[in-house]
Fold these 4 entries.
Entry 1:
Amino acid sequence: MPLFQHKPVSFASLLGLWRIEESIEELRAQLLSMRPDHEIPAFKPETRTKEWLAARVLAYKLLEKLEAPEMYLQTQETGGPICTDDAWHVSLTHSGPWVGALVSCAHQVGIDIEMIGSKAPRLAPRFLNEEELAAAAEDPEKVHLYWSAKETLYKVYRNRKLDFQENLRLQDFERKPAGAFAGRVVTDTFDQSYEVHYEMHPDFVLTYVLGPR
């Protein structure tokens, strides 16, 4: 599993990106060497199994680098990962051959990768509100960043009941190779602003958030 990027993003927070090139058997062996009694679900699509295994191998490697106590990743009712040690937070993502992970004991975290293609611009009216559509007009890469940012905010909030157009709101910004812009999660009972960090890569975009605990 070749490491593409590995960097601290704040105190006690580490982000990693990997490109999957291993077989399912190799990834399973890596995971079980780190957590011998880890439960491994069965997925019919081979790619889904690879993504699941690779993301967890990466997360455990990042936790080791931060010298975190041994813990396991379990699945919440919302579908996202949760650490058995509640002092730590983790977010996972996968798209195409890439997997990413963000781990922290200082922040609630969210991370998302989106491969650049035709899907996001085509579906933009389903997940962007009118202001966001206007801000991203004629800029497909910005549409991808907005889509990725909303996925990241969704993961930080950790509740399925969100409308991407109404509850997840993004500010306009001048797109650069890397930077940050403002995002906000708004519901009847919750209102929190976040700084959404982003990176542009040749084949994909990356966004991540370090939120308050």
Entry 2:
Amino acid sequence: MIFSKSLQFFVLILVVLTFGFPTSSLAAVQNSQSEYSDSKSSSELIKREKVARAVDGDTLILASGERIRLIGVDTPETVHPNKPVEYFGKQASAFTKREIEGRDVILKYDVQRKDKYGRTLAYVYRVDDGFFLNEEIIKQGYGHAYTKFPFKYMDQFRNAESEARTNQSGLWADEEL
């Protein structure tokens, strides 16, 4: 029996998701697929890649050269051409580098695929353990929920930021409650 390339890719993704993610992460990825129209195939919503490097706390470059901007996350600037390095920016960049550089990841897309700078917008999960980079950056206080545009995990990210503030994590370590 001969399978089309898109069917082979879909089967590969299912195998990766089944054996590469903890059950809770797998369920989150599978459940989120149902929110997209049937006109989009699974291969358009999820793909596996290797991260070449972290540009800063919320931007990555893949081994393919594609530039990824994390959905729903804003970290302090460290490489902006017109802005100085912002408070806690170096720590946020170091966190992202430590957690994701050189690792295989699953990219999951939301409704909008590109930002105004041409970067691909994505949720990023480590293949080996399902670590959800976007949320962890916020939870650990390396950035805040970027809510200018609606996205799937907006409430979850807002709650993560609130928790980080309450726990005085990262950016909010010295903040008065």
Entry 3:
Amino acid sequence: MEKQVTFSTHITQQEFTRFNYYTFYSQPIGIILTIIGVGMWIAVLYYFFNPTIMGDQFPLTQLIFAIFATILMPLFIYRNARKNYHKKSRIIEEMHYFLNEDWIEIKGETFQSKLNWEKIYKVKETKSWFLIYTSKVVSYVIIKNDLNKEQLLVFRTIIQKIPNLKTSLK
């Protein structure tokens, strides 16, 4: 008998914001920017504790970059996540999912999609979510806490049975 699972999920503004942070800071640019920003803070602090080594010039460039990378960038992500959450109606809708080994169907209040698994780019599991990517950058977010243990088990079983599907499951 073919496995299938049905469940519903709704992403809150807080979850959507967390997802945006995760998306940025799990990419190489987010990691590199943060490391360089922390390094710049160290250079600025080093100047205050030992100004003779760096000369008389205050490390203004380092301070500006440190503020941008470690303070302003997270604030921009937060602001954009809040703005997009309220601007894009599909994000705030409750999503109803139906999955089997042949396709996935997603229904919201204003849309409905039914995709064969060949159209799915990959499925990734994180600590809090399942991400079903329809391209390299666009994904459906399924909050794992919205699924019970049986639904989680069936979901993983279905995903693992799909041939040629890129997966990253825990």
Entry 4:
Amino acid sequence: MTEEEYNNYMAKAGSLCARNEKCEQDLRKKLFQWGISDDNAKKIIEELKESDFINHQRYAISFTRDKLRFNHWGKKKIAYALKNKDIEDPYVREALEQIPEEQYDNILQEELRKKDLALKTRDPRERKNKLSRFLIQKGFESGKVFEFVDTRMREQDKNE
């Protein structure tokens, strides 16, 4: 690869990182799609890290905020996804700690309400199991899920 080609790819990668947060793994995939060799990809990534275009701490916070807000994922699913992207544990913990508890609970409550309305079954045990499985699959902690599902079931029993 010539120096000019390298500089062009460096600028292109920098532009990509400037538009939205990227982790090292995401950028490495993109560089390979562009046909860049492993050695050149490592150089580009190192340069971008040094110039703070790639910052795993910032990425973890942004990823967490977006997955919670738009996908309504729970903390466990977010943590798992970040670890799969090779984000360091301290950054994952920091990002998860920044989630406002009230917002998190409201999202869990809303997901529970929507799923409950969509269920066709009225059998209490089956509804409880389906609601719990759904929320745990979305990455919410099982203790919190069972607490919220039990509360909803009790409220509905009172209304009937």
